[in-house]
Please model this.
Amino acid sequence: MPEKINRENIGQAFQELTKFHRNFMSSHIADEAREPLYKEYQGVQQFALPSPGTKNSTSTFEAIVHRRSTRDFTKEVLKPHHLSKILWSSQGITAKIKGAELRSVGSAGALHPIETYLVINNVGDLPVGLYHYNIRAHALDLLIQDDFSIGMVNACMGQEFLGQAAVNFLWTGLFKRNTWRYSQRGYRYTYLECGHVVQNAIIACQAMDVASCEVGAFFDDELNLLLGLDGHEESILSILSCGMSEISNTPIISEIIPAKTKIEKLSE
Ligand SMILES: Cc1cc2nc3c(=O)[nH]c(=O)nc-3n(C[C@H](O)[C@H](O)[C@H](O)COP(=O)(O)O)c2cc1C
Model:
């Protein structure tokens, strides 16, 4: 554990200070501090998404083997049913058990600290602008109608493809929803869960031949400002740029490269 915590060793300190030990588990904060499970905006224009459905001709395994980051998007419009499937796959409610709403991704304590925002440039007839995914309504709430493509490129360190994407998904962590229960260890769970959400979105894209690229290089507070967040209680964690592409799938390795050491064969 570093003696003095600074920018150079904060990761190491974080890892150390958020460990569970047999003689110390982080405390459970009082119930009053509990955050609502859903963030919902009032008085905004809402666009209902089509039902996602679960039928698809591409198998999960085909989607995984063909998954590739793609940064060349055409001007072809993305359809609302694409958005519906991507959002539902990454955050949608899939079951209600004993009053609890469960989703397409797991979550520590089913607290679901991830929120989804979208910068839409070219999806169906939707106005260009900033949206928030209303999970319970499976709908998009329009927060600001404006063209954010240049702002996105600038906030993401000049990565031009963000300006050409039909949609950029912006996932945030609402840390308080998790730290209420897990204290500082809740940050770990929030980051882990964001990864689950992003990967489900990527696989959903791939299964529909929608190109995507995750983006982690951005100026956090410039995006937090765009989203109207303070960056402490809730902050940007990851982005996925999506659109149609002419780039065909890269060749895949059809056989696993044999290991040089002798290996035991498992039965099927
Ligand atoms: C957490 C994370 C952050 C990433 N950030 C960026 C990024 O800012 N810009 C970019 O072009 N690609 C980014 N990528 C995509 C990686 O460059 C890409 O996954 C890697 O080169 C492997 O290629 P593949 O995804 O096609 O297998 C990111 C990927 C991950 C998982």
User: Anything to note?
Assistant: Residues 68-69, 71, 159, 213-217 surround flavin mononucleotide (CB under 6 Å).
